[in-house]
């Protein structure tokens, strides 16, 4: 039930009848073009013309910060267009999760009175025309938020009251509420097993990160908890009350099987998800492989953004920040 | 065939290095080896070092590199035209060129910049012209109307027009006019005419949509439309003339200087690659060493040439190729004219290793035979023969196509030959018309004998492949692999004999001894080939059976030809019958060219080459101009 | 009746292998087309790979003829 509704939020593209094997072969081919060795890029100063990967060479000269996101969406759109109906069903929760970022970017543009840029980012987006029209409504942020609430409430009642969140805590609050509720909604709907593992890892990472920030940065507000992951609410509250970083480390070790770096928790958590998907990608069945590729693309995009906007920062810090 | 290659060492006094390399370069048969391993005896490595350029050489190199970059920059400003070739010695003018090039480049750059500025202005003016033309034609008058306003705009995407139209009509209650016309650069120039009161709103809307408004430059302000229009046109013709003048000047400049500079560039590149090559040489305190490879047949020529040029000062020594160096030896394939066209069929495969074989002669021998065995029809063969003769003549210039038809020529000869053996001429037409009888076998009915025939071809071909693998292993000096291949051959033969005798094709007495032989040999097979050896054996047997396709595909071709004749016969009318028969035969002929080609190639690529061919050879890249 | 069964067996021998070959070739073919779109330099290898499963139907054909010939 829930699955079929997700697809309505994404652009309608005709199923052009590409065989799954064709898509997988192309993904395997493209996967080999992803950047594997980041060190030369980290050490060499990354000037726009000096980018090793031809895939990014052309877009980086642009002084448009969302060019990388746009490029990523284009790649996702390409994969989406080659999928058959069944695969699109399976992947719609993932694509919609990715497109949440597009929604946020649009809202930020609307807030910053840069309506002109909205159209550009939407042109490559996979969102359905209905949502795009809501986002296009120029600079009227409130009507956009209400429109989004209407759309998402049709998906599940979980999303009711998003407008109030916006009224109370502004755009940042709205963004985090939407993504948290979306994750909870995804975890409670019926998902493909690989997809479920992925979302569980994402939920866990976000829970851990929230706890980490709460303890490490001594945030006053208690950390938000996303249900549906492998951490129970009780454990979550216990750790939040205990305020012990070692507890978090042991949690990451238990869930992800990796040793977290306490100084750089976010990267460690990214690595955890990457590891999970790498394992899923080895499975010859299509879903794991595709999801692994999509995730690697997004990691590559993140790394390139870090490189580009951290040009003046010390190399060691950059290296620690990047997911490798 | 893989050409025999010699490993060569050239030694001489240090100061002759550059001349020796130039000499080798002119000969064009020597590939230099920058790796030292395997060329120098153990213990001597300490005395031999990479050739280090001295200071003079380094400064020359940086001078030449600088100059080459400058020449490239110079050429980037010149228009692309064809010019005469200059035969001036580039090094005699090098110093002069080094002095003049900056001035020349600056001059060209100035002209180019001026030209591009003018072109930009022209494009701009062109938009104004379109706008003004539209206005004049629309108003029919040259007076400016006080209650109307005009907005010019540039539209990059044509689909925007409809949206603008829609919005304006909502905004002004359809009291507006929108004209568009394509400008030279592909974008649209739009002209909106609306009531003065709506102007502000419309402007706001356009800036929201990021549609740049086209406003006249300030010096146009006091002119009316006619004056503006005249002004624009005047300026346009002036600019066009000016652009033409600059282009002419640039062209004259290019005609005069480009030949010399391009000759200098050639010289520079030559000298620079020479300098680069010296880095692959080695030196001791007094001597230089160059190591490398060349076809053995060329060795005498090179020796003679070096002796004549340098007297006894430089020696060329052939050395023994070590076993561990086998993979380093570069590969040159050279085939007699008969096999040459078949190189086309192995081009997609990677190069073979030096210890392996050139696949071309094998495919040259067997491909046409298999093709003939499958198609096997005199009539079709004759048609293909004529076609290939005509086409080879027609495409004499295009080497690849000519090669295709040369292969077809040989294949069609074999088709005719097998056609006679099978007694086929357009299927059974020969038999019906002039009582043609098969010499050996009637393919249509004799299914079992044909299967056996194809199988024996397969057995022979695969066993040949295995034997070649055995020879290659010996050549490579790998005894274990050679033994393994030999065992494979023996066990395969054993299996075939035991199967044949159990079917009664060979005396039944043979069955028991061969089975015993197989049982005895199998442990050795496992020992030499590992656990996968039985699988490999099974694959070989499968490969042999795969040759049954020769018969199977041939059979479909015969039956189609037969059906064509039958259907034609059933019409009862000569002309209709003839037309139907020719159409069906044409279809069969087209199929009969494609499927034998594909299947006979496949038999080579998959079944035959996998038995002996080792890929991964290094390409021969001699020093050459 | 026996003849019918034997013919049916022969038909199965070639029919099933033909299906298997067709299925394998369709998968290899579509994967090959995908690979070719990304790495055109592999064309030689792909042609060979597409051709490999053909052996199945040839083997089926041999079995079928053997079945039929054994009756005569």
What would you say this structure looks like, in words?
The complex is a heterotrimer of chains A (324), B (625) and C (72). Chain A is mainly α and 324 residues long. Chain A is built from 16 helices and no strands. Chain A is globular, with a radius of gyration of 20 Å. Among the domains of chain B are: 5-51 and 280-331, Alpha-Beta Plaits, CATH 3.30.70.2170; 145-223, Alpha-Beta Plaits (2-Layer Sandwich), CATH 3.30.70; 349-442 and 550-608, no CATH class; 450-547, no CATH class. Chain B has 18 helices and twelve strands. Chain B is flat and about 120 Å long. With 72 residues, chain C is an all-alpha fold. Chain C has helices at residues 2-38, 43-51, 54-71. In chain C, α1 (2-38) packs antiparallel against α2 (43-51) and α1 runs antiparallel to α3. The model of chain C has no long low-confidence stretch (mean pLDDT 86). Classes of the chains: A mainly alpha (324), B alpha+beta (625), C mainly alpha (72). Chains in contact: A-B, A-C, B-C. The B-C interface holds B 348-350, 447-448, 451, 542-543, 545-546, 548-549, 552, 598, 602, 605-606 and C 43-44, 47-48, 51-52, 54-55, 58-59, 61-62, 65, 69.
Q: Main β-sheet of chain B, in a few words?
A: 6 strands, antiparallel
Total count of strands of chain B: 12
In percent, how helical is the residue content of chain B? 55-70%
Rg for CA atoms of chain B: 39 Å
Residues in helices of chain A, as a percent range: over 70%
Please give the largest β-sheet of chain A: none
What percent strand of chain B? Answer: 5-15%
User: Which oligomerization state do the chains in this entry correspond to?
Assistant: heterotrimer
The low-pLDDT segments of chain A are none
Mean pLDDT over all positions of chain B: 85
CA radius of gyration of chain A is 20 Å
> Count of helical segments of chain A?
16
The geometry of chain B reads as flat
In N-to-C order, the SSE pattern of chain A is HHHHHHHHHHHHHHHH
Task: Give a short overview.
The complex is a heterotrimer of chains A (324), B (625) and C (72). Chain B is α+β, with helices and mostly antiparallel strands and 625 residues long.
Task: Note the main attributes of this structure.
B: 625 residues; alpha+beta; Alpha-Beta Plaits; six-stranded antiparallel beta sheet; 61% helix; C: mainly alpha; F1FO ATP Synthase
């Amino acid at each position: 039930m829930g699955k079929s509704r997700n697809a309505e939020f994404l652009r309608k593209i005709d199923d052009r009848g590409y065989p799954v094997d064709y898509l997988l072969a192309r993904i395997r081919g493209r996967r080999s073009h992803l950047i594997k060795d980041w060190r030369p890029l980290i050490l060499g100063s990354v000037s726009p013309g000096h980018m090793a990967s031809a895939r990014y060479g052309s877009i980086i000269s642009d002084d448009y910060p969302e060019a990388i996101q746009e490029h990523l969406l284009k790649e996702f759109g390409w994969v989406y267009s080659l999928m058959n109906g069944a695969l699109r069903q399976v992947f719609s929760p993932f694509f919609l999760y990715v497109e949440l970022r597009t929604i946020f970017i649009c809202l930020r543009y609307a807030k910053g009175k840069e309506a002109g840029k909205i159209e550009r980012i939407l042109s490559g987006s996979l969102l359905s025309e209905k949502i795009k029209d809501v986002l296009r409504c120029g600079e009227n942020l409130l009507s956009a938020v209400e429109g989004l609430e209407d759309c998402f409430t049709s998906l599940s009642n979980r999303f009711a009251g998003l407008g109030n969140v916006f009224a109370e805590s502004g755009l940042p609050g709205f963004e985090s509420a939407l993504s948290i509720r979306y994750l909870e909604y995804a975890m409670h709907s019926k998902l493909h097993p690989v997809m479920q593992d992925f979302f569980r890892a994402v939920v866990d990472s976000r829970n851990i990160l929230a706890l980490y920030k709460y303890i490490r940065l001594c945030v006053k507000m208690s950390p938000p908890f996303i249900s549906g992951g492998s951490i129970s609410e009780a454990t979550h509250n216990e750790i939040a009350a205990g305020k012990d970083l070692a507890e978090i480390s042991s949690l990451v070790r238990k869930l992800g099987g990796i040793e977290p770096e306490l100084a750089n928790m976010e990267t460690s958590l990214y690595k955890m998800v990457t590891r999970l998907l790498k394992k899923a990608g080895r499975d010859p069945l299509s879903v794991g492989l595709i999801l692994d590729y999509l995730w690697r693309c997004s990691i590559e995009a993140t790394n390139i953004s870090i490189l580009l906007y951290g040009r003046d920062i010390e190399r060691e810090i950059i290296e620690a920040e990047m997911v490798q | 065939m893989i050409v025999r290659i010699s490993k060569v060492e050239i030694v001489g006094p240090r100061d002759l290095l550059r001349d020796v390399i130039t000499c080798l370069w002119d000969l064009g048969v020597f590939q230099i080896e920058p790796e030292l391993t395997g060329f120098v005896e153990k213990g001597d490595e300490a005395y031999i070092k990479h050739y280090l350029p001295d200071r003079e050489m380094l400064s020359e190199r940086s001078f030449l590199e600088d100059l080459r970059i400058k020449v490239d920059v110079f050429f980037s400003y010149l228009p692309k035209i064809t010019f005469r070739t200059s035969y001036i010695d580039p090094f005699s003018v090098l110093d002069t060129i080094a002095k003049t090039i900056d001035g020349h480049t600056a001059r060209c750059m100035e002209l180019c910049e001026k030209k591009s500025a003018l072109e930009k202005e022209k494009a701009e003016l062109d938009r104004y012209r379109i706008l003004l033309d539209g206005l004049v034609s629309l108003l029919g008058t040259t007076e400016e109307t006080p209650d109307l306003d005009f907005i010019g705009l540039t539209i990059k995407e044509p689909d925007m027009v409809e949206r603008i139209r829609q919005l304006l009509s909502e905004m002004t209650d359809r009291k507006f006019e929108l004209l568009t016309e394509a400008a030279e650069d592909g974008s649209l120039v739009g002209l909106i005419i609306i009531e003065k009161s709506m102007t502000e709103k419309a402007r706001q809307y356009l800036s929201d949509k990021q549609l740049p408004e086209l406003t006249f430059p300030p010096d146009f302000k006091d002119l009316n439309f006619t004056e503006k229009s005249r002004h624009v046109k005047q300026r346009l013709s002036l600019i066009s003339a000016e652009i033409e003048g600059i282009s002419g000047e640039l062209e004259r400049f290019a005609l005069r200087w480009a030949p010399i500079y391009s000759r200098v560039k050639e010289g520079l590149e030559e000298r620079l690659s020479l300098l680069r090559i010296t880095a692959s040489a080695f030196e001791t305190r007094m001597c230089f060493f160059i190591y490398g490879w060349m076809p053995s047949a060329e060795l005498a020529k090179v020796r003679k040439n070096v002796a004549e040029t340098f007297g006894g000062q430089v020696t060329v020594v052939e050395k023994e190729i070590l076993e561990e160096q086998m993979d380093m030896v570069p590969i040159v394939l050279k085939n007699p004219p008969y096999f040459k066209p078949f190189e086309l069929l192995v081009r997609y495969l990677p190069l073979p290793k030096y210890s392996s074989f050139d696949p071309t002669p094998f495919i040259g021998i067997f491909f046409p035979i298999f093709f003939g065995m499958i198609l096997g029809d005199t009539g079709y063969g004759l048609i293909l023969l004529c076609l290939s003769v005509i086409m080879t003549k027609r495409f004499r210039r295009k080497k690849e196509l000519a090669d295709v038809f040369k292969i077809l020529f040989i294949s069609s000869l074999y088709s005719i030959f097998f056609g006679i053996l099978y007694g086929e001429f357009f299927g059974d037409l020969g038999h019906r018309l002039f009582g043609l009888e098969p010499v050996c076998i009637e393919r249509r009915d004799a299914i079992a004998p044909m299967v056996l025939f194809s199988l024996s071809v397969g057995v022979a071909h695969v066993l040949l492949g295995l034997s070649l693998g055995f020879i290659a292993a010996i050549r490579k000096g790998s005894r274990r692999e050679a033994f393994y291949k030999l065992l494979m051959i023996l066990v395969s033969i054993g299996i075939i004999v035991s199967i044949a005798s159990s079917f009664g094709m060979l005396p039944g007495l043979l069955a028991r001894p061969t089975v015993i032989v197989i049982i005895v040999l199998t442990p050795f097979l496992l020992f030499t080939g590992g656990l996968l050896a039985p699988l490999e054996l099974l694959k070989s047997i499968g490969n042999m059976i795969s040759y049954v396709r020769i018969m199977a595909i041939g059979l479909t071709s015969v039956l189609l030809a037969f059906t064509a004749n039958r259907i034609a016969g059933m019409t009862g009318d000569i002309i209709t019958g003839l037309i139907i028969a020719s159409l069906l035969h044409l279809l069969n002929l087209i199929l009969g060219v494609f499927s034998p080609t594909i299947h006979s190639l496949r038999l080579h690529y998959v079944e035959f080459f996998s038995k002996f061919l080792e890929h991964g050879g290094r390409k021969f890249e001699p020093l050459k101009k | 009746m026996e003849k019918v069964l034997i013919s049916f067996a022969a038909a199965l021998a070639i029919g099933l292998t033909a299906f298997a070959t067709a299925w394998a070739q369709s998968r290899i073919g579509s994967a090959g087309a995908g690979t070719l779109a990304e790495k055109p330099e592999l064309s030689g290898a792909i042609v060979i790979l597409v051709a490999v499963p053909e052996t199945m139907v040839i083997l089926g054909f041999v079995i079928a003829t053997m079945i039929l010939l054994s009756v005569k």
